[in-house]
Design brief:
- The chain is mainly alpha-helical.
- The protein has one domain: Arc Repressor Mutant, subunit A (Orthogonal Bundle).
- Strands 1-2 form a two-stranded antiparallel sheet.
- Strand 1 and strand 2 form a beta hairpin.
- The longest helix is centred in the C-terminal third of the chain and has 34 residues.
- It is globular and about 70 Å long.
Length: about 150
């Protein structure tokens, strides 16, 4: 899945004292919620609860897909959909836990167990993308100038 985030003018949420309210606004602004979720009670959605209740409130824990599905009372494919979205944004990371039998099980957690630290990866991806847009704009401008001559 490609890195994808929505950029829009954003006022810092420093005046919002409620975690869920701040998270809802933030996650909406970055485009985490799809069209089915927008306009509903976002805080009851699987996507919201996955990020806030599991990854943010329990940032110390590495979660397995099966555990997340059980915790959120939903299916594993639904959990995978939102986990992949968060992975694409680089907010969560995969880690492997060794089982008693020597096998490894894949788990997921908030990158560095910190939203602030994870956000550095998002910012870097945005910077790289914006740099590539700049190169494309410059190239298109050169093509337009060449055609005008």
């Amino acid at each position: 899945m490609d890195f994808e985030i929505t950029l829009k003018k954003h006022t810092p949420l420093t005046s919002v004292d409620d975690l869920e309210e701040a998270a809802e606004i933030f996650l909406t602004h970055i485009g985490y919620f799809g069209p089915r979720i927008r306009g509903t009670d976002v805080r009851k959605s699987i996507a919201f609860r996955l990020f806030v209740d599991c990854f943010l409130r329990r940032s110390d824990k590495t979660w397995f897909i099966k555990e997340l599905a059980h915790e959120l009372k939903t299916t594993q494919p639904t959990v995978c959909k939102y986990v992949n979205q968060l992975k694409a944004m680089t907010l969560i990371e995969e880690s492997y836990i060794e089982e008693d039998d020597g096998s490894q099980k894949r788990g997921y957690r908030l990158r560095y167990s910190s939203l602030a630290d994870a956000w550095h990866f998002v910012e870097e991806n945005v910077n790289v993308s914006m740099g590539n847009y700049r190169k494309s704009v410059d190239h298109i401008q050169k093509l337009a100038e060449k055609e005008r001559k």
